[in-house]
DNA sequence: AATGAATGAGCGTTCATTCAT
DNA sequence: GATGAATGAACGCTCATTCAT
């Protein structure tokens, strides 16, 4: 019985390993040759498996992209959650900075994941899976925003922050989101930023974020606290990136 | 001689008109059916010219995209320049706001152009023209930045703004650029932002920009001046969008 | 020994049940999705058995079709035999009408079976099994004809019918066969016969058959006897279709 | 100008010749390997043209079948019309026999055309073009029937024929249609009819037709006139098959 | 005996590109 | 200079069949 169980387990394990391998390959290819360059033929050729086998795992090219996007989403969520519950945060703004650090870490550690998100966003992959797309994208965006919004609301509750008239919590989050998404997109897709004077875009991004929140008067202001240090601390303590 | 010249001129004019028509068609198709849907066959079918003729103008499908991106760049530059030299600006920060308004107007007025920029940025179109790409992208980014940088430098010169230690003019510009590019990308590619709480993303973007510059202590602060009004004024006076 | 026998019997019974189940499924699928839609994968997916197991029963996709055709043949033969030995027949022509009723009943009761016959007839399934085909098809046609021929010969023997010069028993049978096969094919494959004026094709078929036999001077003529009533009677009494 | 015209004419002629060649090939392949065996790859391989070229003529595999079916329909209609207007017909039943001869000639002269009709009828080709199918099939059947119905109505008008109670003109036509379609199908798809006793199926079909019409009391009866001779005469005089 | 992972040839179709006219 | 027929590699996908377990 044990043998049988083991057998099943091994087969299943092999299956999952194969699936992971397909996704890994797809992720890399997506990064290297883009959505257009990603083809089932190429994936099959690059693996030691045949086309048919790939199709036994994913019945669509789109399903692969979908799976990839799901992975990316889950990874990011996981990291955001870890950051949002960081025990070292003394203020609500610390917590916000921690999430910023998580976003930074995410792109650095999993650049392919970020790539996938951009492709999913820009491509017309979804024409077929249109209905699912709307749901998936929205869930993705919604859950990510919920974490950030939670921290903002906490700040409001604690009196660290007041919103200007007519602005909602989500508007603030949208600002941070745009800034981060835009920055990483430019960093990822622009070669030679240095040559146009941007030596350290990550530092510039941190600065911009801090100043934006200063503008909102989220206390403590960046003039009162070194959030740069907070970023580094989070990356060290939460993500072991020292 | 005059006749000959005229003839050449007419031919040349016809040639340029044809070229413009091809690009116009390609632009529309790109927006409607995406990069994947854009095909030389389809372009030819939709025109009164044949495929061969189109190839006489653009020896590549990629060349067409390149030309489209060029157009977009030129259009944006033109608008940025108009904004940067707006006579109604009383302060350096007014001028900065004017450029923000130009960016807003650009996306609203020429959504296809913005589309093209995103495609160019995300696609692996460039494999063949990789060398040209680096140059082109850099020129694109460089010229746009130069205008914005100019305004920042003016602010520094006039004492309206001091940069924090370690930050360059380009870092500030990068922040604005990221924020804007990110915001418009999200707006363009997310369906149903409203459902996740972002009712007026453009307003949120303006706010974020203003607060970011407030963070930099660029005077007058947004608490001292209604830049929202400046945005509207520029769109009215410079771009006739009232 | 008895135990062993029983075991073998049970196994064999299970095997046959499985085989029957495969065929049942295939028959239904053939009708629903056509020959093109019939696939080993789909059959396996729809059953609780795997592809490999199915291949243990039928080493070919074609073999399944062959088996299906065999079933159809057997079913029809069975019904023809029942009709040919109908105790209610008073004349040889009654007996002939009874077979006509059987053919009618067959198509009505087992439309899938008729479907299979047509597919087998039209498809080039047989390339591989070509040798078997010739045998099988001939056996099929031969045995069916034998029954009908038997009735014709009986009529000749009893003096109800004389054949015109140069015509054989088989020629008469061929006429009936053609008429029936053609009619059911048209009925099955034509949508909206009614719109082209054929409101009741079954009645038209009965009429045509009767008149053809009248032409042969097979007594009693349809003017002397209501064969329509005979048809209904057979369907009621022999096939319980009332 | 003449040169230009000629050029266009030649190109167009070449195009049509190519198209005809594709259809000819497809027709033969359809007959030899059936609908399933017909593939764009095979057509392309068998011609000296590439797959792309084939697709420039027919944008679908189905379009080819459709074109083939159209050809068959037109050919048959043409032959039916020629038969229906045969000047040698002395009676309405002569005219009917002439159409029978046309049907015979059609299958003999263009067996592939008849093949196409059967395939179109039996296959699930039409799943995609389902809407068009209904129309096309109906037009096909309708136009063919109209000619035959016309002759029947003429017979009624001239008093050569009375219909039994409850039977329509179309019912009679349906009988003839079924008989012919069925007979040719069996002849085409059954190997070795002779071995099961049907030495001359064409003769048997003629006989069956004649007797069916005799049953309807369509005068002159086949006992009063040698319609076999009429058949041969039509094939000779109208179709030059002597 | 039963399984289902793996195969790989084949399918219909698209499309950038070339080149004879 | 303009044309569009011709190409052929590539695509996403299917499926009958095999075979190690």
Structural class of chain A: mainly alpha
Biggest sheet layout of chain A: none
CATH topology of the largest domain in chain A: Tetracycline Repressor, domain 2
Radius of gyration of chain A: 21 Å
Count of DSSP-assigned helices of chain A:
10
Distance between the termini of chain A: 47 Å
Give the ordered list of helices and strands of chain A. HHHHHHHHHH
Q: What is the molecular shape of chain A? A: elongated
Tally of strands of chain A: 0
- CATH superfamily annotation of the largest domain in chain A: Tetracycline Repressor, domain 2
CATH architecture descriptor text of the largest domain in chain A: Orthogonal Bundle
Which regions of chain A contain 5 or more consecutive residues with pLDDT less than 50? 1-5
- Multimerization status: homotetramer
Strand content of chain A is under 5%
Q: Roughly what percent helix of chain A? A: over 70%
Largest interface: C-D, 63 and 64 residues
Mean pLDDT of chain A: 88
Query: How many separate domains of chain A?
Result: 2
Descriptive labels:
homotetramer; mainly alpha; Arc Repressor Mutant, subunit A; Tetracycline Repressor, domain 2; 10 helices; 74% helix; DNA-binding
Topology:
The structure is a homotetramer.
Chain A: H1 2-37, H2 40-46, H3 51-57, H4 61-84, H5 92-109, H6 111-122, H7 130-158, H8 169-189, H9 201-215, H10 227-237
Helix pairs in contact in A: 1-6, 4-5, 4-6, 4-7, 5-6, 5-7, 5-10, 7-8, 8-9
Chain A binds a DNA duplex (21 and 21 nucleotides) through α1 and α3.
């Amino acid at each position: 019985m044990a043998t049988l169980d083991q057998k099943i387990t091994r087969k299943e394990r092999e299956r999952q390993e194969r699936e992971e391998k397909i996704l890994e390959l797809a992720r890399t290819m997506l990064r290297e040759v883009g959505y257009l360059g990603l083809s089932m033929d190429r994936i099959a050729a690059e693996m030691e498996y045949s086309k048919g086998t790939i199709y036994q795992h994913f019945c669509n090219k789109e399903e692969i992209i979908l799976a990839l996007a799901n992975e990316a989403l889950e990874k990011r969520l996981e990291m955001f959650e870890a950051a949002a519950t960081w025990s070292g945060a003394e203020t609500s703004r610390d917590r916000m900075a921690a999430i910023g650090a998580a976003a930074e870490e995410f792109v650095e550690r999993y650049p392919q994941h970020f790539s996938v998100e951009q492709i999913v966003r820009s491509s017309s992959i979804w024409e077929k899976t249109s209905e699912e797309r709307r749901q998936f994208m929205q869930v993705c965006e919604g859950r990510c925003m919920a974490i950030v919004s939670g921290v903002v609301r906490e700040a409001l509750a604690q009196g660290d922050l007041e919103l200007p008239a007519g602005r909602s919590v989500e508007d603030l989050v949208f600002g941070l989101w745009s800034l981060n998404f835009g920055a990483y997109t430019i960093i990822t897709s622009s070669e030679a930023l240095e040559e146009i004077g941007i030596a350290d875009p990550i530092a510039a991004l941190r600065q911009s974020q801090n100043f934006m929140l200063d503008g909102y008067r989220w206390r403590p202001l960046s003039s009162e606290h070194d959030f740069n240090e907070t970023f580094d601390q989070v990356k060290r303590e939460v993500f072991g990136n020292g």
